[in-house]
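### Sample
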Amino acid sequence: MARRAGTTVRALRFYESQGLLPAQRSANGYREYGEDHVRLVTEIRTLQAVGLSLDDTRPFVECLRAGNTAGDACPASIDVYRRKLAEVDACLDRLTAVRADLVRKLAGALARQPGPCHAEPSC
């Protein structure tokens, strides 16, 4: 299962402990996973790769486990996208303000410098 899903056994156990990956047990106690489980793990990994926390993936996993064809077919998943996008936008706004402040500070520092690099940010 780990190999098919492109992850580690440790990650699978962690997802199971967090309630994201239900593990059915065979008579001998081994965990049994099907293609639906591979799909859940793939969804979790894909969402984490774009910056969602493990907790953020819950609505997507629940949506898939409810029988939907996509993890973002449910309103709760859309809400996560919207919230995360607002967080990213706020972060970009803060970074843009920091960049503008740094550009102003650099320009001021360069204006006080003697020599050929006067007011040349690339020097």
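Strands lie at 24-25, 31-32. This sample (MerR family transcriptional regulator) is used throughout the tutorial notebook.
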